[in-house]
Design goal:
Elements (H helix, E strand, L loop, with lengths): L1 H32 L3 E4 L2 E3 L1 H15 L6 H8 L11 E3 L6 E2 H15 L1
Antiparallel strand pairs: 1-2, 1-3, 3-4
Helix pairs in contact: 1-2, 1-4, 3-4
């Protein structure tokens, strides 16, 4: 009985980890294909550079991002060097903090599932 419970717990943990990885990859793709500018420490970067930068932060800091929400909060919302918030600037829209933009993208993904 204990073995069955442990197996079920491991399967549930693996499912959560797979879901988080899938959602984080979705967010990285969303920023990369958005066509929006990404402002980091006062410098504007194209969307593909933003995707690469956030992917690098995720590769290096996976242990801090066990969920998509943690990825947004801990890695994708501000500079780890300066603490300045990242911003997303889409055509014909006001700038928005990346944490807000990414959270909106995550909600869209989850509503579509």
């Amino acid at each position: 009985m204990l073995a069955v419970l442990l197996l079920a717990a491991n399967v549930a943990a693996a499912d959560k980890a797979d879901t988080a990885k899938t959602e984080i990859q979705y967010l990285l793709n969303a920023i990369g294909t958005s066509g929006c500018a990404f402002v980091r420490n006062g410098t504007e970067h194209p969307s593909l550079e933003a995707q690469d930068h956030l992917a690098m932060k995720y590769r290096r800091g996976k242990r801090y991002a066990k969920t998509a929400e943690q990825f947004i909060e801990r890695l994708a919302s501000k500079s780890s060097w300066t603490g300045k918030p990242y911003q997303v600037v889409c055509p014909n829209e006001p700038a928005v903090d990346s944490g807000v933009w990414l959270t909106q993208q995550l909600m869209i993904l989850r509503m579509d599932q």
